[in-house]
Amino acid sequence: MATRREKCKYCKTGYLVSIEAQSITCPKCRVSVHLPHKNTSGGFSPSVNSDVNMLPISAGFSIFNNSILQSVASRVQQKVNDKVQRVQSLLREQALLPSLQEQKRAVLCGVSYKGHPKSLKASIGNVSIMKQLLIEKMGFPYANVIVLTEDEKDSSRIPTKANIKAAMCWLVQGCKGGDSLLFYYTGHASKVRDTDGDERDGHDEALCPVDYETEGRILDDEINTTIVRPLPHGVTLHAIIDTCFSGTLLDLPYICRVNRGGYYLWENQYRRHHSTKGTQGGLAICISACDEHQTSGDTTTFTGSPAGALTYSFVQLLEEEENLTYGQLLDAIRNKVHEAQKAANRGYPLAYHLWQEPQLSASESFDIHLKEFIIL
């Protein structure tokens, strides 16, 4: 049988493979490696999984023909999926992911965009106080709280698109009745043109990983598919999203509209798509920094140092108060955020347009004045 020599691009181990082989599992690091196909001229041509020239995903894409856009997007998504699989494989092999035996698991993601003109100063601190709350107050096992920031020494814990998606997959992997999951994100977000017709305003909301300019954003559709839809009966997911345009970032079917008198109404966001936006019987609840058309911000009002207005308010309330209902929690968070904004906007009477209103959304409706906020 004709063979050729190849080298693993991760551990650099050399080995012989069949000349017809398209992929192989490295005998040393156990990562699946895609091989180039041999062409009839005797050289090698790239396989379908080879790197493609990446383009930043932005509003500028609207100038392209839809078929070209879909083709590029498909190739980009394939590349990201391959990276996610490789990261997960490496994490399992190196035992970097914690055990799935514990009932409580969390993924905390903070993106600072170091060196970027729009870098964020509060993200690292936001993640730090959230982690402290979960471990010291909520009883999350230290090993079951995954942190992704640019300060992490482990490359698999940098908040790239592939690493964030791999961490989200781990969060729900093998979850069962009684499990309590939490996903936290602080960083930038943006709106991109909706391509599947499920958004009333014609735009998807999207998270911006640290490498979003080359690898692309993580759409709300992807987040819903990854950490909402798989939830079986008895599993509860809480998401705390401290970013702009975050009101519907999990694409949950219901968003809670509350007036100043405390009266509320659950609004169905996706009547046509309800069956595909919900869970498999579990419960998903999201507390977000603002409505889907609003921006959010950091503040120095609370401590003198930059902090996410939602994050700090959420953490402080849960450290000081117990037995809060969702209605009480949402109302108290809004009051604290408004207090910070009033302090920041003193002397700027036209700053009302920057107002942010924290939101509550869920996979199913419930009585927010009776249901207690509990992370079991």
Biggest β-sheet, characterized?
A: 8 strands, mixed
Radius of gyration: 22 Å
Task: Name the CATH class of the largest domain.
Answer: Alpha Beta
N- and C-termini, Cα separation: 59 Å
Number of helices: 8
The tally of beta strands, per DSSP, is: 19
| Low-pLDDT windows of residues | 38-64, 347-353
Number of domains: 2
**Shape, please?**
globular
Helix residue percentage: 25-40%
Tell me the β content: 15-25%
Using the coordinates shown, work out and report the CATH topology of the largest domain. Rossmann fold
In the CATH hierarchy, the architecture of the largest domain is 3-Layer(aba) Sandwich
SSE order? EEEEEEHEHEHEEEHEHEEEHEEEHHE
Describe the structure.
- With 376 residues, the protein is α+β, with helices and mostly antiparallel strands.
- It is 27% helix and 22% strand.
- The chain has an eight-stranded mixed β-sheet with strand order 8-7-9-13-16-19-14-15, sandwiched between helices.
- Strand 17 and strand 18 form a beta hairpin.
- The longest helix has 28 residues, at 66-93.
Which key phrases capture this entry?
alpha+beta; 8 helices; single chain; Rossmann fold; globular; eight-stranded mixed sheet; 2 domains; 376 residues; 22% strand; 27% helix
Short summary of the structure?
The chain is α+β, with helices and mostly antiparallel strands and 376 residues long. It has 8 helices and 19 strands.
Helix-strand blueprint:
Layout (H helix, E strand, L loop, with lengths): L2 E5 L6 E5 L4 E3 L6 E3 L2 E2 L5 E2 L20 H28 L10 E7 L12 H15 L7 E4 L12 H12 L7 E7 L2 E5 L9 E5 L4 H4 L2 E2 H9 L7 E7 L11 E5 L5 E5 L5 H4 L5 E6 L9 E2 L7 E2 H12 L5 H19 L14 E4 L14
Parallel strand pairs: 7-8, 7-9, 9-13, 13-16
Antiparallel strand pairs: 1-2, 3-4, 5-6, 10-11, 11-12, 14-15, 14-19, 16-19, 17-18
Helix pairs in contact: 1-3, 2-7, 7-8
Pfam family, one: Peptidase_C14
GO cellular component, one term: cytoplasm
GO molecular function: cysteine-type endopeptidase activity
